[in-house]
Amino acid sequence: MRVTVFGTGYVGLVTGACLADVGHHVLCMDINQDKIARLRDGKIPIHEPGLEDLVRRNAGSGHLTFTTSHADAVAYSDLQIVAVGTPPDETGAADLQYVLAVAEAIGANMQSPKIVVVKSTVPVGTCDKTAECVAAALGARGSTLGFDVVSNPEFLKEGAAVADFQRPDRIIVGTNSAHARNVMAELYEPFNRNHDRMLYMATRSSELTKYAANAMLATRISFINEIANLAERLGADIEQVRRGIGSDPRIGYHFIYPGVGYGGSCFPKDVQALTRTAREVGYHAGLIEAVEAVNARQKTQLFDRIAAHFGGVDALKDKTVALWGLAFKPNTDDMREAPSRVLMEALWKAGAKVRAFDPVAGEETRRLYGEEPGFELAPDKYSALDNADALAICTEWQQFRAPDFDEMALRLRNRLIFDGRNLYAPERLRDDGWTYFSIGRAPVQPQARGKQA
Ligand code: UDX
């Protein structure tokens, strides 16, 4: 099959490369000439395991091609997948200008019937708006040229996007057109061979499913963070509570890890957009608003603790905090809404310095904060600690899980860790002379040696 994908961002590029890899012919379109030039050279703009290989292989075989021309993109195929960005606008609503611009380009350029597949995460009702936009651009030609608009949300996790696309839990197709349904079934047939994962539904149900899934997952995270905060105050250990509730199959172990709050390109944006959509239809989605509020508070946790430990915000002036982990989660260089940003910005405001290490997100952080005098990037995890007053941890990269604590103690000024991801066993650190703060567990202080009975 021939397929056009609009947008070579995260979703568009993964979609295009994975569809090409199963044998479809895919043309990826982006208005950013630079990006397309780099993609033609096999260079991908994001860090995503397996993606670069996939792009190179399929570009090499001719299954994956690139263009900056709307006319070429529209002419290439009858299946037009829209995967452009929907960043939040200043009010927190999803900005639809890029989606609607593609709709207009399709309407203006189409010479044959099209199926327009909306893969971008868009508020409920956007497929209807997209159809209006295509129809308006099509004008009088609409009497002879038909088109369908289909909702087909993605459920890709950063760091595992290729695998998620290749082995999806479900493929949601929202349409009332039997023709569109058949074409979508053919498109995804290679991913359904052993087990049919297609779920067909009404367009608006499909659009809402995407938001409901992300809001549910975000709710679980804010819920466990709320219980963690309670556990600390009640003298309970959240890790024990987590295992205790996760063993109930109705609850399960996924997405109940306490931490410094969720970040990334999806949860924060989608939770806010859903809240907004609710307001637009006159409904106050109190639970979903609370999920957002709990998360915002959780992101300030590490800073509050560091400040309290040193005796207040003023005491942080000229302190240096080593920071392990910048990305909003491991295996990505994505810094969008990363909890590390809230911590760093608060530390700088208090006059402290940050010496950070992240296995891949360092460059992206430098791009964001290059001018910030309080920011220094360390080449490895241990040199980030040199003469720092404390270590804070924001991302649970594998290489932080079993570090050499002796080496750390030699480099740091104090045996002091603020762990936002509960990576270590508190007793072990206590016995080793560390002061260790984590989430939802009592802080530990070094045990006075020789004083034990
Ligand atoms: C998410 C959804 O999982 C995916 O289905 C959707 O398509 C896009 O949004 P992603 O943003 O890549 O994917 O990251 P995910 O792995 O879901 O993690 C999101 C955030 O939640 C991270 O900041 C992570 O650290 C945090 N998180 C996750 C927790 O704090 N606790 C958990 O138990 C799980």
Short description:
This protein has 453 residues and is α/β, with parallel strands linked by helices.
Descriptive notes:
- This protein has 453 residues and is an alpha/beta fold.
- It folds into three domains: 2-201, NAD(P)-binding Rossmann-like Domain (Rossmann fold); 210-297, Orthogonal Bundle (N-(1-d-carboxylethyl)-l-norvaline Dehydrogenase, domain 2); 299-437, NAD(P)-binding Rossmann-like Domain (Rossmann fold).
- Helix content is 42%, strand content 13%.
- It contains 17 helices and 14 strands.
- The chain has helices at 10-21, 33-40, 51-60, 70-76, 97-109, 126-138, 161-166, 178-188, 203-234, 238-246, 267-280, 286-298, 301-310, 339-349, 362-369, 405-411, 426-431; strands at 2-6, 25-29, 64-67, 79-82, 114-118, 147-151, 171-174, 198-201, 320-324, 353-357, 375-377, 390-393, 416-419, 435-437.
- The strands form three sheets. A six-stranded parallel beta sheet has the order 3-2-1-4-5-6, with helices on both faces.
- Helix 14 links the parallel strand 9 (320-324) and strand 10.
- The longest helix is centred in the middle third of the chain and has 32 residues, at 203-234.
- The protein is elongated.
- The termini are far apart.
- The structure holds uridine-5'-diphosphate-xylopyranose.
- Residues 154-158, 214, 217, 221, 255-257, 259, 262-264, 266-267, 328-329 line the site of uridine-5'-diphosphate-xylopyranose.
